[in-house]
Amino acid sequence: MVTLEDNWQELNDAEMHLYSRQILLDGWDIEAQEKLKLANVLIVGCGGIGCSSAELLARAGVGKITLIDADTIEISNLQRQIAYSAEDLGFYKADILAKRLQKINPHIQVHAITAKLDDSNAAELIAQQDLVLDGCDNFSTRYLVNRVCVQHQVALISASAIGFQGQLFMVEGDSACYECLFPKEDQANESLRCADSGVLTTTPNVMASLQAHHALIYLGLGIAALKQKLLLWDGLSLKQRLLAFEKDRNCPCCQVR
Ligand SMILES: [Zn+2]
Questions:
Q1: Residues in domain THIF-type NAD/FAD binding fold (predicted)?
Q2: Is the pTM of this model over 0.90?
Q3: For 201-235, how does the pLDDT look when each residue is reduced to its tens digit (9 = 90+)?
């Protein structure tokens, strides 16, 4: 969790104005806002989920945002990836998104990495974060992010969206992890991606909003509402369900820790 002792940084007048509607909130005071300012958050994947949740965190005042994505912007991305326009085609998503966030909020620091998160860079990058938001589009990255977050005890909020459905859950402290919930051998099917299965414009943006919302209440107020809970959102019935899950004593990821 973010602590205020070591890096105390007060909000200046411009920031107080910018975040005034948030600071006015019952239950959200200047201290909560300052915790956001001190927070380091890594966004894995700058696609439909990442570009939307990153923008919400930037607007809310999360102080240091790191974006990692190796992809460039394609025309089929524009249907749902709200940070990008036709003029951005061919450029790196992380670069374009970083520029956008910096324009939206000049008071925060944004760092873009135009590479894939893999075994060579994951530990170094994740170990320095207060929170990781995963919105990647493939299982191998999702398992890697989960494993490294568990190893380094960094909180993780993971969101996904396929078709009309979305999922969201949190790994924090000694909680069950993604691999406890979805053992690797059951999830060998890499083809479950938007690229193959299709996705409605709004689905990843709903899940990104929920993910960013959870990130804010966690960073500002220390609330881990989805710890050991899987949120399932259905975009046809508009039903949302919360399923509790337990730690798997045989989970290889949790064993290593
Ligand atoms: Zn586990």
A1: 19-253
A2: yes
A3: 999 999 999 999 999 999 999 999 999 999 999 99
Alpha-carbon dihedral 246, 247, 249, 254, rounded to 10 degrees: 170
Question: From ligand 1's centre to the CA of 174, what distance in Å?
Answer: 9
| Share in percent of the chain as helix, strand, coil (round to 5) | 40, 20, 40
- Measured in Å, residue 150 CA sits from the centre of ligand 1 at 8
Q: For domain 27-255, which architecture applies?
A: 3-Layer(aba) Sandwich (3.40)
Neighbours of 245 (CB within 10 A): 14
203 Cα to the center of ligand 1, angstroms: 27
Checking if the pLDDT of 6 tops 50, the result is: no
Q: Where are the domains of the chain?
A: 27-255
The whole-angstrom separation of Cα 55 and Cα 209 is 10
Cα(176) to centroid of ligand 1, in Å? 5
